[in-house]
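Newbie here. two chains, one complex. Structure please?
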Amino acid sequence: MEIKKIAVLGAGVMGHGIAQVCAQAGYQVNLRDIKDEFVQSGIGKIRKFLSGSVEKQKITQAEADAVVSRIKGLTDLKEAVLDVDLVIEAIVEDIDVKKEMYKELDQICRPDTIFASNTSAQSITEMAMVTKRPEKFIGMHWFNPAQLMRGVEVVVHAKTSGKTRDTIVDLCKKLGKEPGVCQDSPGFVVNRLLQIWYNEGLNMYDEGITEPIDIDTALKVAYNFRMGPFELRDLVGMDIGYASTTTHYRELMREQFRPPRCLIMKVKAGDLGRKTGKGFYEYK
Amino acid sequence: MIRVVSIIGGGELTDDLKEILGKAQFKVVAVGWKQEYGKQVEETDLVIEVAPEDFAIKKKVIKKCDSKCPKKAILATTSSNPWITRLAGETKRPEKVVGLNFTKNPFEDKYLVQMARGLQTSEETLRAVKGFLAEAGITAVNLQETPGFILDRVIASVVNEAAVMYSSKLATKEDIDKMMKVCVNWPMGPFEFADNMGVDRVVEILDLMTEQLGPKFQPCFLLRRMVDAGWLGKKTGRGFYVYS
């Protein structure tokens, strides 16, 4: 099946970026959120990003205008998804809210419309099973910022059809992204391995072996990691990191995913990282 | 203050150290670990042993240095194993024994040193060695000796989890490697790290960590089977990938 028209649900951090990438590749995009101010804020961010690209002479003003003209902002769900070939869902990371959304979409959308969830934490299988089209249900996990990060995890579950998978892999390539296919499982591939990398770093600090700066420096200088685990925890935010680690630990039920003590204590102390001015390091 | 450095060993690290330390105006004496030496190390401030990664050999070298070198000299082992306190116990100067583990960056011509202290290593020794490394322009990080030190512990743990994921067919090895590079900007994927490090070395570190730190480090069966098959990575022409 060829994708021509796409609906992106949720105009937040991920949703607006995904909509922009699709529109830049020439697709018609309906960008939908529950309130018009959210939709307008998303479109505003897209405009701002594109004017940056125009200033850097990466694209012309005419091209930037054309991208924006392909994006239609909406709050009405039915109108947003009625005639699309693909729905990319990037709404709040709450399994119950997502399931309700998919039940509704299943009723409104054409039977051949593919559902792709941008979730990083919820089970693709669980969401697929509330619809009558599990074979057309897939995960499409983007990374922040969607405009710049090249990779997309394409997550299939036991009932995703080969056709759906191939359509989405092909779409990723047309969007200028590098797709990687994996089976539905907690954390998929990328976040699960990142958890191990974070945790072993943080555990060594908990064990009193060494300090955050030594661990970060070692990984950056020896192997060219762009950031060490402590710097990245500070950047992403300790609360988000703690939630992610806890989810992995609960779902994979293995010791290597247990949240490190230093992470728990930072959350309790309110030292959440860059956004609060202090995490493992101090920021001014 | 460290001025005269003796390197006991051979191989790439010895050659690189001679060049780096020579440029930084240290007096460098290099001798092979099998070779007879005595006079060469009489004036030394710091010995760096680069002998093969075998405890019996390292012990022999350290004991010999302890008897031939002046009392003030610091004895450093480049071992990637947590043998510092053990080796220190073989000498009459345990407070002057320290670990200096060198890792060569696979992309650039530079080293990272993991400076590991044993239980008895003194602050004075650490200060002197830190000063020496700074003067030589080598980036160093500090830690207590522990299985895998910092780098091998993190990388071997990641490789192990990736091997579990690959064995259970969650994704292909190519996709796992690619995803880590394109989604979160890792310099290499886990299987590329494994092939570079040597699958046998990965298993060795995981076994040692399992023994000393706990069962969560237990190596995935696939890694053991690869060692059985001789698929050790780049050095044998085949690991997770085939090299020609």
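Moderator note: Strands of chain B lie at 4-9, 27-32, 46-49, 74-77, 97-104, 111-117, 139-144. The longest strand of chain B covers residues 97-104. Thread marked as resolved.
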